[in-house]
User: Fold this.
Amino acid sequence: MISFESDYTNGAHPAILKRFIETNEESVSTYGFDKYSESAKTKIKEACKCPEADVYFLAGGTQTNSIVISTMLKDYEAVVAANTGHISAHEAGAIEYTGHKVLTIGEEMGKIKPEELEKYLSGFYSDENHEHMVFPGMVYISHPTEYGTLYSKAELEGLSNICKQYEIPLYMDGARLGYGLMSYDTDVTLADIATYCDVFYIGGTKVGALCGEAVVFTKDNAPKHFMTMIKQHGALLAKGRLIGVQFDTLFTDNLYFDISRQAIDMAEELKKVLIEKVCRFFIDSPTNQQFVILEDSKLGELKKELKVSFWEKYDDTHTVVRFATSWSTKLEDIEKLRELL
Amino acid sequence: MISFESDYTNGAHPAILKRFIETNEESVSTYGFDKYSESAKTKIKEACKCPEADVYFLAGGTQTNSIVISTMLKDYEAVVAANTGHISAHEAGAIEYTGHKVLTIGEEMGKIKPEELEKYLSGFYSDENHEHMVFPGMVYISHPTEYGTLYSKAELEGLSNICKQYEIPLYMDGARLGYGLMSYDTDVTLADIATYCDVFYIGGTKVGALCGEAVVFTKDNAPKHFMTMIKQHGALLAKGRLIGVQFDTLFTDNLYFDISRQAIDMAEELKKVLIEKVCRFFIDSPTNQQFVILEDSKLGELKKELKVSFWEKYDDTHTVVRFATSWSTKLEDIEKLRELL
Amino acid sequence: MISFESDYTNGAHPAILKRFIETNEESVSTYGFDKYSESAKTKIKEACKCPEADVYFLAGGTQTNSIVISTMLKDYEAVVAANTGHISAHEAGAIEYTGHKVLTIGEEMGKIKPEELEKYLSGFYSDENHEHMVFPGMVYISHPTEYGTLYSKAELEGLSNICKQYEIPLYMDGARLGYGLMSYDTDVTLADIATYCDVFYIGGTKVGALCGEAVVFTKDNAPKHFMTMIKQHGALLAKGRLIGVQFDTLFTDNLYFDISRQAIDMAEELKKVLIEKVCRFFIDSPTNQQFVILEDSKLGELKKELKVSFWEKYDDTHTVVRFATSWSTKLEDIEKLRELL
Amino acid sequence: MISFESDYTNGAHPAILKRFIETNEESVSTYGFDKYSESAKTKIKEACKCPEADVYFLAGGTQTNSIVISTMLKDYEAVVAANTGHISAHEAGAIEYTGHKVLTIGEEMGKIKPEELEKYLSGFYSDENHEHMVFPGMVYISHPTEYGTLYSKAELEGLSNICKQYEIPLYMDGARLGYGLMSYDTDVTLADIATYCDVFYIGGTKVGALCGEAVVFTKDNAPKHFMTMIKQHGALLAKGRLIGVQFDTLFTDNLYFDISRQAIDMAEELKKVLIEKVCRFFIDSPTNQQFVILEDSKLGELKKELKVSFWEKYDDTHTVVRFATSWSTKLEDIEKLRELL
Assistant:
């Protein structure tokens, strides 16, 4: 069985487990005040070229979205997201559970176009009845998006400028950020993201960690008593070292970037195989997720030896499936796939 | 420096880390459907002698309390807890954040007495205006309590009977459950807890895991679509194996109980030293937390070489401190303490 | 100045004020247990031909939507509404404030087509990942819709059947129900609504009352302790007589229907004038709201002597405006409009 | 039957109904922008000697408490109230429903003593673990209290100073404010309240209106977009005139104060009768609520001709009952009571 099912079916990068063992006996401070968390924060700030940043660690993506969004919004505010945004549909109503609406707008391949955002916001404020509606109070984007696509630097700057004009923060969901940064096809660096986003998170769970995301507030704008609110949401880990050690390892000797690059290299190899085998692409994705349209009969047959993710029905006889590579994908997996196809 | 500060300053029991490494390369199902989680659930049900139980894994104690309580309560219901209950004061309003009140009642050394509960509930329903108040919809107890004390089997049965009479569930917070079960001074088994409680959790974070608590619904009473609501609270781990592997290890070959016993043995040794050194006990605790009244001047001196937790001021010149042993406490730590005192 | 701005700019029907005075000196029970509320409930159940109904009074429409929806949904459920539904956009996030998502689906002139609903619900359950999404737990429709349009009896039956199949309630927002029932162009009676809807409300605020809506649960399905939850939402009036007296008056001697019919008669006269003056209709509405496309320059001029509601921009030089008649509109108002146009 | 059951069993003061009729035909702005609401606000600001105040109208007391408290608190904050505070026990968990805890502290006859508050707040901040608890973010007092007692000007000043020191607002629930202001035994004026409180409300429902409370923000501190949040809570009345007309009437020609004085005069007459008939007082109340301890057998007999409120059991054979006078109590009611007793 070959698996391209997702980027989180394997465990952690071995370097992380090794570090757990090395640090295990030490008695350290709890609730995130341990030295590994501190060290990880320092390294992340350096990697972001953003010394004034505030960094917090949380366990997972939905948790991070829910806490960041609900603590940054005022009661009368909602978050603006693409129709296809992860928070819009696939987080079990986690944002609404905190009392906030997700205002959805149109997208192109998962991306919010600056023009579209500007149109939406100016439309809102020109509506005479807008005091009877929730106010757009934040913009949520994902990078890579749910379709594996990436914003260009110019697009991020465009979104950032609009957000500044309307005085609302721009928030980036970076669940797969490493794969975006290491794409062959991007002009966006981690420092750019720290420049253009008011807050974003660096995904660990899908990029080599067992769990954990690093939230970065870039403009001295972490909500007051953020730790208390993390606890209020049930998200404060007693042993903060669990995530601290992982991110400290990932941000030592470029590991986060190297393993992300490995996934991208494998995705490019995968693409070659898919092209060679005359597969039809659903989207042109420059990251570790590749979306391919397969005939249902062929898919049925392949499934005996291949694990991929169902994405959506394309038409009555075809299905869109997702192939995901990860830091743990090996060249031999791609070879096996070539043979199989 | 000797540390008796808390039972979660160290990492995980080595057997857990070993197991992480052994299982790391396998590609397994996500979101808790992996084989380690399945195996752990089976072992926990056996340990509880409760084959009909439903078991779920969550990352931490406050998260567990918040999710269990809010999903089991109706909108018009509140949870009844002791004044000193962890949810009453020390969880940053996490229960109220979900929209539910914590109704507090009197306690004795952290324990809710059955008579007190009966008085409270009958008083509520005899109030003519009770439709203008939230209804008591669940009873929360902790075992060991926040003071290290334990319910007897008779007390648990008493509370259980009252809850049955009022048709509300009895919920036990078992953040330190292992230390309660292995106390020299208890007649309560894990099977008893499964019998008397409608839902309880087996603490991992404070008993040898890096994180994780196992919620056990004992009466075929897990809330419908509980997994969806776990996600809604931001608590669904993508790599469910993180907790699955830990509990599978803890419930293999009696490990959970053995390491808890180690902490209790060390606590009994600690008590001997404290008695020998004529320390005054604040409470008579049969578990791994020992509360001692120290003169402030002495405490100041000891702090140079000893870490303990501040509990509360006793009077103008004395302070109550907590000594906590854990699965990782060694006899030599106790010896060092004897010398120090 | 002639006003067709809305159906709630005037006070109450005079019969209501008269009744306030007649009953003012009596000392009656509070919190909705007064004899006027009781009498009004009986009359409403008769008018609905639904003796088993439970009737509750609330003060306004958004309040009613918020309370009915949040108390009928489980935590893991969301309400399905048309994109144009009042709860989707114009209630300041009141539904989300209670923790529930509004799932929006396509509509035609404000109406949810049964086929569309069926497609949506079957699509949801056929999605392999639906446990990661909130469940559709209720269907919200408005009648008349926000565009003044009406469901036919067959359409209501269709929606009702689908809801039964998926075991979720059908809820009708009847803020302007009287105007729907008295339309020249409807085959739907109040009894039909009680048959097909699991819960609905009869609007008072926009149909002759100073405030107040009557919620009707038709299937012995009022949420348990509904009164306590009304109070929890801050909506329990100490002097329940305020709404009781109003609905008792409206449902005596057919008043609710007669005054609604007056508004419809006036709307039909209004239509004649608009047609005569060659106005272009934006929608063909059979109720008291008429939507007309006016040239901006003409609108600017008319505004000096006419109050209508801005609806939306039609194109660069035209605007859609709404004319609303009400129980208090008089034939002379229509005459004045004819002269003005 | 003589009724001293409560101060809201009758309708509205006749002047209010008269004014409804006079203004009924006018077409006015909706959602609280009508001229009556504007006029009422101006008059209230004058009566408070607080020209910079912001005034808003809401329908009832629990609604007002819920909205004011939840919109003024940050997510990490709770409101401090007396154990006996209305929000602590008798509002069906309405505050917790908005996600905020009510922190209760000891009281004397319903009043929070400044010393007690200071002790509580300084205790909170001296706790090393306070970041794991919700922060006290507002102080709630009621005046008159639930026991009919009143704060002195010095006590209000004391509370106000402590709140200023801790930078949290002081909020007064004035459901029965008129009766407090017109007590024979008070040195507190409406202007004093505007000086010492950051926000308070002037009760209408229990002081002559059919419904309605006037919220007064005294320090240019109304929450941003307060109207939107009122709507979000379901509390924005389409016909704002309903409350505007009532408060405009109550604050014309001193009506609010005159009718409150009438209730106090009657309460003083009532006290005389109760003393004359050798009744035992439970509390010494200077306002319109009088609490008396009656033998159960005697109470049983009286109930045939007298309506009073059950307050609480005093002992096995005695009960505390509440007599409430109101603006509508007449001297002949007192006379009848004398004869009855």
User: Anything to note?
Assistant: Chain D has a mean pLDDT of 96. The CA atoms of residues 29 and 244 of chain D lie 11 Å apart. The interface with chain B takes residues 75-76, 78, 89-93, 96-102, 128-129, 132-134, 310 of chain D (CB under 8 Å). The first strand of chain D starts at residue 2 and ends at 3.
